[in-house]
User: What shape does this take?
Amino acid sequence: MQDKVQSIKAEISAATANSQEELEAYRMRFISKKSVVGELFAGMKDVAPEERKSYGQVINEVKDLAEAKFKELIDQLNQQSAGTHTDHIDLTLPPVSGSLGSVHPLTAVRQRIIEIFERIGFNLSEGPEIEDDWHNFTALNFPENHPAREMQDTFFIEKNPDIALRTHTSSVQVRVMENQKPPIRTLSPGRVFRNEAISARAHCVFHQVEGLYVDENVGFADLKQTLYHFAKEMFGKQTKVRFRPSYFPFTEPSAEIDITCMICGGKGCNICKGSGWVEIGGSGMVDPNVLENCGIDSTKYSGFAFGMGIERITMLKYQIKDLRLFTENDVRFLKQFTPMS
Ligand code: DAH
Assistant: This one.
C-alpha cells in the first residue's frame, strides 16, 4: 500500500502535459472517478476500521497533490498556447495587398469636365432628379401641348400637376436663375431619365452636364470660345468644334455642338457615319422668355447655355462602342480606367 501511494505520488510529480490531449489523459488517470486516485478512495471499504483515519489522510494528500498538479498543468498549457500564437507572427512577411478598385469611367470624365470649367470660373450646382413641370418644361419655354415635350419621352410620376423624372439637366438652370442674381457661371452635372429602349446607343438613365453663363453683354462668341476651350482641354489641341443650327425651346439662336470624330480623326468611319463629325450636345443663347420666367431682366442681361451627354463624351474619349458597358459592372471593363487629368 505504502509503495503504491509512493509510486502514484512520484508519477503525479513527474507528469507533464504539452497538449489538450495529454492534459485530458492526466485528468483521466489522476482526477476522474475511475482514476488511480479514485481507486484508492474505493479501496477505503477494505481497510480495517482502526486504520481508516490514517489511510484517509494519506489518500487525501494524494488527491490534493493530483489536483494542484492539474491546475499547474492547465496554467502551463495556457501560457504555452498564448506563446505559440505570438511566436507564429512573422513580422518580416510582406502584407497581403487588397486589390484596389478603379474609378468608373463616367466618374472620371465628369470630374475632368468639372475641373476644366472650374478653372474658367464656373461653380457647381445641382437640382432634384424628381422635377415638376415648371422646372423641366414650362419655365424653359416649352409651351403646353408643344410637341417638344413629346420629344423627350418623359417618365411621369404624377399627372396634374405633373411630376416627372427630369428629362434633362436644363431644369437646374431654372433653379439657379430663380435663386441667384447675375453674374452666374454654373455647371450642373447629373442623372437624367427618358423612356427609351436600352440599346448600344440609348439608355433610359444617363448623365448630362449643363452649363450656364448669364451676365451683361454675353454673346454667342463667348459660347463658342468656351466650348472651343472645353473641346481642346478634353480631347486634345487638334480637336475642332462645329456649331450646327438647331432648335431648342429655351435657346435662341440654338446650335448643336459637333467635334471632330475621335475614332477616325475626321476622316470618316462608321461611328461618325462617314462625316468626320460627332455630336456631343446642344447649346444656344438663353431665350429672353426663360430669363424673364426666372426673374432676370432680359433687357439688361443675356446668357448662353449648353448641355452635353457625359456617356457620349466618355465613349468618344475612350472609344467605347456600347453604352450598356457603363452599367453592367463587369470588372474587366471597369479595371481599365484610372482618374484623368
Ligand atoms: N437639354 C437639352 C437636351 O437634353 C440639351 C441642351 C440644349 C441644353 C441646348 C442646353 C442648351 O442648355 O442650351 O437635349
